[in-house]
Amino acid sequence: MLRPFRNQIRATLVAATALATAAVVTTGVVIAENSTPEVKAVSNSQESPRLYVALGSSYAAGPGARSLVIGPCLRTKNNYPNQVAETLGMKLIDATCSGATTRNILDVPQRAFGGRPQIDEVPADADVITITTGGNDLGYVSRLILSGCGNVLPEFLKKTPIRSCRLGKDPFPEPQRSAYLEVERSMVAVIEAVRLRAPNAKILLVDYPPVVEPGKPTCARLPLLPDQVAQTVRIFNGLADATARAAQTTGVTLVEASRAGAQHTVCSATPWLTGFSPPVPYHPSEAGKKGVAELVVDALRPSRAQHANTRSGA
């Protein structure tokens, strides 16, 4: 049943090996110079631009094959924070980092981030702060990748350029209810700590676009069995619900990529996420970065603050 998946991924991996090798060489030069958050001023106005700080994991950092990757955190120049800053003419401190958990934002240093938590980069005069987090706390994407490895690539586990496939093919156990409650508590703690550091900032909690919608067929880009699809939906819904509760508790604005992205799943005609392919499976595509950026911009523009895919937690 999964032979079509095998054939497509086999061809993709051969072509991607050279790309993955080149990426290592390229980023090896950049890493030494870019271990700190990227600071970018994009306003042409004579007035001081508003200061925007982006916090979060790879869904905010935006790693991808077509984009210039900056440093060990794998930030890209066209991730949604950069696009928001460019559109609204804000000065950006991009503190996002691939692999980050909520604790890496709050109080646990991350090696890729220079051995310090992201919150250290939040200045008191920040005007806007976005936070995208929680997926790595639950092993959400790692589980998806490992499921794909087990389904279609058993003979390639030792040589595939999809790094996670080399870690084994058994996905993590499904999170229990306590795990979602812990993620919610951690998000609340992050928001409260950010608010203490930047009391006048507008804080937006930006959730994740979905990989798959319940009841929809899979495709070669999503080599999951029916029970794995059902599990993926459960975990995603649990994460989205925890994020919404954290926004409600703290009164920050929730930007619902989970809702807007429902029409842009991996197997849709206009996906916001990459499929099961190197170098970064199941992460925002070029269209996905643009789509989430537009949602954030909508939430920040006063006349559009009540956009259908955003809501205030207050």
UniProtKB/TrEMBL annotation:
Database matches in InterPro entries: SEST-like, SGNH_hydro, SGNH_hydro_sf
The SGNH hydrolase-type esterase domain, residue ranges: 54-289
Residues annotated as catalytic: 58 (nucleophile), 283
Chain ranges passing through the membrane: none
GO terms classed as biological process: triglyceride catabolic process
Single GO MF annotation: triacylglycerol lipase activity
Keywords linked to the UniProt accession: Disulfide bond, Signal
Domain of life the protein comes from: Bacteria
Gene3D superfamilies named in the record: SGNH hydrolase
Signal peptide limits: 1-22
Disulfide bond residue pairs: 73-97, 149-165, 219-267
Record SUPFAM superfamilies: SGNH hydrolase
Xref: CDD domains: SEST_like
Protein name per its UniProtKB record: Putative esterase
Organism: Gordonia amarae NBRC 15530
